[in-house]
């Protein structure tokens, strides 16, 4: 087995919104509880804002003493979201039945925490709050709720390293990733998908650079 690495730097051309649920009780019960270890679940809960600024309808950026960041699994989720769209277009050789397992098994993000920066400096607070209505059609009629997300402005960057597990004699139909394929996925996302919350509203669009490590 060999490991190939690609370092990506996203530079956002539109605001990017936080993806982490800000309700500590909901997060602990439904999200952190699914972490692979109790320690990781506690780590993620600890990165939420203090209870006194908690808002149920708000999604946020996790934060520690170094600044705001995205978790590794959030970036892997971004890859999954992009891959399924490419599968539907017929531009990805993975199947819709196996792409999640393929990412979980063979595509990893090197650092657990991946920090947001501007001009080479880690961001320590959001630039504002984005509000938008959420509309849903139900059996009882249309329902509208207000959603809010922390946001950072265009010009913010995010750097992370993708690790690709590869085998010279790989026998799994899921072990298809290589550097060229990973770059193609990110290129598709930069044009048509975006990153973060409320991408359908045009948020999270980015340009990117990459280098092979």
What topology emerges from the helices and strands here?
Layout: E1 2-12, E2 16-17, E3 20-21, H1 24-31, H2 38-46, E4 58-60, E5 63-64, E6 67-71, H3 72-89, H4 99-106, E7 107-109, E8 113-118, E9 121-122, E10 128-138, E11 141-152, E12 157-166, H5 179-192, E13 206-212
Parallel strand pairs: 4-11
Antiparallel strand pairs: 1-12, 1-13, 2-11, 3-4, 5-6, 6-8, 7-12, 8-9, 8-12, 10-11
Helix pairs in contact: 3-4, 3-5
Protein described:
The protein is of the alpha+beta class. It folds into 2 domains: 2-18 and 61-212, Alpha-Beta Plaits (2-Layer Sandwich); 20-59, no CATH class. The protein has 5 helices and 13 strands. The strands form 2 sheets. Strands 1, 5, 6, 7, 8, 9, 12 and 13 form an 8-stranded antiparallel β-sheet that branches. Strand 8 and strand 9 (121-122) form a beta hairpin. Helix 3 runs antiparallel to helix 4 and helix 3 (72-89) packs across helix 5. The longest helix has 18 residues, at 72-89. It is globular. The two termini are 17 Å apart. The model is unreliable at 26-33 (pLDDT under 50).
């Amino acid at each position: 087995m060999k490991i190939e690495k690609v370092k990506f730097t996203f530079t956002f051309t539109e605001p990017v919104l936080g993806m982490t649920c800000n309700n500590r009780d909901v997060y602990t019960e439904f999200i952190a509880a699914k972490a692979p270890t109790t320690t990781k679940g506690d780590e993620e809960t600890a990165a939420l804002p203090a209870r006194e600024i908690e808002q149920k309808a708000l999604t946020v950026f996790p934060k520690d003493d170094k600044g705001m960041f995205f978790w590794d699994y959030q970036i892997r989720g971004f890859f999954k979201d992009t891959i399924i769209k490419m599968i539907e277009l017929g531009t990805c050789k993975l199947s819709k039945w196996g792409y999640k397992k393929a990412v979980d098994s063979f595509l990893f993000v090197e650092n657990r925490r991946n920090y947001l920066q501007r001009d080479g400096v880690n961001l320590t607070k959001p630039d504002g709050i984005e509000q938008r209505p959420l509309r849903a059609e139900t059996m009882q009629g249309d329902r509208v709720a207000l959603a809010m997300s922390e946001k950072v402005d265009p010009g913010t960057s995010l750097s992370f390293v993708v690790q690709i597990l590869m085998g010279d004699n790989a026998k799994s139909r899921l072990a298809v990733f290589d550097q060229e394929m990973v770059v193609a996925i990110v290129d598709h996302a930069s044009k048509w998908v975006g990153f973060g919350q409320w991408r359908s509203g045009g948020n999270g669009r980015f340009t990117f650079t990459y280098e092979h490590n």
